[in-house]
Design brief:
The protein is mainly alpha-helical. The chain is built from ten helices and two strands. A two-stranded antiparallel ribbon has the order 1-2. The N and C termini lie far apart (71 Å). The relative contact order is 0.07.
Length: 234
């Protein structure tokens, strides 16, 4: 009974510490050393007499499980509140920073085995749960040439399996609309189009969105295809 009580206190103390870190409480090297030492102790306890596949079991059951659950809860709440109070472009910056923070937190005091699941949990609550909001905002970003924000959204959604398909379609549809509008502006009359202006208009559209694809979408093949299809119809 006494050991259970001590274990519960240790788990509670050390899994709540990262929460104060996330809230911006000033931490020094001492705080990082303390929690890193606790994590290493859990790992060492699992090494004694256990088969290889079970050696992280003590760490997983007594720290990692609770740490990941707290992480999910914290960012679920924070992301919802932040999006209610701030525009999407500001949230994109916030989400990027939070993902970077968690990777640094893993470097500082977590066992490396936690990294993959931590990233997965953070992406779920910071990005995947808000995809519909992202998709709705994407059109506004395109309409207003917010290329840096488009790049931030791409970087976040890129990390989700299948997340880019809808962005790719939205971009393709947008370029097609812009191209048609540009061509229509070249009409001298209802049935007459100036060939030179027509070609130049298409070149201008292609140049603009080729630059966007190269810089904001990192030349991703999906978005190269979207540009080509929108401009050539094939």
């Amino acid at each position: 009974m006494e050991r259970t009580h001590v274990d519960t206190s240790v788990k509670s103390g050390h899994t709540s510490s990262p929460k104060t870190d996330r809230k911006g409480t000033e931490w020094g090297s001492r705080e990082y050393r303390l929690i890193k030492t606790a994590v290493e102790s859990f790992v060492q306890l699992g090494l004694k007499g256990n088969a290889p596949e079970a050696r992280l079991l003590v760490y997983s059951q007594n720290f990692e499980h609770h740490f990941l659950a707290e992480t999910t809860s914290y960012y679920t709440s924070e992301s919802q509140v932040f999006l209610q109070q701030n525009p999407v472009p500001e949230y994109l910056k916030k989400a990027q920073k939070r993902l970077k923070d968690e990777q640094e937190r893993c470097d500082k005091y977590l066992n490396e085995s936690t990294r993959s699941e931590l990233e997965k949990r953070c992406l779920q609550v910071l990005v995947e749960q808000h995809l519909e909001i992202f998709y709705s905002e994407f059109q506004n970003l395109l309409d207003n040439d917010k290329n840096e924000d488009i790049g931030r959204m791409y970087e976040l959604v890129y990390r989700l399996e299948g997340g880019l398909k809808h962005l790719k379609q939205l971009l393709e549809d947008h370029i097609l609309r812009v191209g048609l509008k540009a061509v229509q502006s070249c009409q001298e009359s209802k049935d007459s189009v100036d060939p030179k202006s027509y070609v130049q208009a298409l070149l201008d559209v292609h140049r603009k969105y080729n630059d966007l694809v190269n810089k904001s979408f990192d030349k991703n093949s999906l978005f190269v295809q979207a540009l080509d299809k929108a401009c050539t119809g094939s």
